[in-house]
């Protein structure tokens, strides 16, 4: 009698991982991009990609320039500031592209802002085809429009490619009813509904991104990217972070 296959299957087959620019910054040196951190993230993503999971990334650019706060702080027009932020995501995308290539991962960079010498234009059917052909796809340039955050870009791209979940990588281990850094008695949610998160005014994503996820029944898993094997635990459905569904 043949032994039973006890290998656990991943919970998700197609994911969008949203990585904020702040995670990529090296606070010790002040450098906007920490190459060792990007290399580690790419190595972790290679592992889950080799498990058969289709992986798409959406990158923020706050480590280089943050649109809304950056424009207010530096005195530039909001629209100009947003485009500066979108260009920052392309710089981060090129760093990830290079890192993936160095570890032998087949990867494509797609930009919402035309920049043909460095990235493909975002074309939905082409993006889906890349995923089906076992390539990691990096989405940069936000939505290509000012006044929309990279959280909204993540919600939009995930909806378009029919991803099963958005993995929102943060520096905290989930969603709390109040700031855990300020309040020791803050309560962590293991799971919460979209409506409860809205009623409690929890800062999961900006309102536009959150509405897109709610309308398209797209769950969001908020977790600490610095926890060992965090991405692997997330895709396997292990207990990590907070699930909004």
Which tags fit this structure?
11 strands, 9-stranded mixed β-sheet, alpha/beta, two-stranded antiparallel sheet, 245 residues
Describe the structure.
This protein is an alpha/beta fold. 37% of the residues lie in helices and 18% in strands. The protein has helices at 35-49, 67-74, 78-102, 124-132, 150-160, 194-199, 207-215, 230-236; strands at 14-19, 54-59, 107-111, 120-121, 136-140, 165-170, 175-176, 188-189, 191-192, 220-224, 242-244. The strands form two sheets. The protein has a nine-stranded mixed sheet with strand order 4-3-5-2-1-6-10-11-9, sandwiched between helices. Helix 1 links the parallel strand 1 (14-19) and strand 2 (54-59). The longest helix is centred in the middle third of the chain and has 25 residues, at 78-102. It is globular. The N and C termini lie far apart (41 Å). The mean pLDDT is 92.
Q: Briefly, what is this?
A:
This protein has helices at 35-49, 67-74, 78-102, 124-132, 150-160, 194-199, 207-215, 230-236, and strands at 14-19, 54-59, 107-111, 120-121, 136-140, 165-170, 175-176, 188-189, 191-192, 220-224, 242-244. The chain has 245 residues and is of the alpha/beta class.
Oligomer state equals single chain
Structural class by secondary-structure content = alpha/beta
Q: Which strand order spans the largest sheet, edge to edge or round the barrel?
A: 4-3-5-2-1-6-10-11-9
- Radius of gyration, in Å, reads 18 Å
Number of strands: 11
Large-scale geometry: globular
- In what range is the share of β-strand residues? 15-25%
* CA(first)-CA(last) distance: 41 Å
The portion of residues assigned to helices is 25-40%
Query: Which series of helices and strands comes N to C?
Result: EHEHHEEHEHEEEEHHEHE
Note poorly predicted spans: none
Largest sheet: 9 strands, mixed
How many DSSP H or I helices? 8
Kindly state the mean pLDDT as a whole number? 92
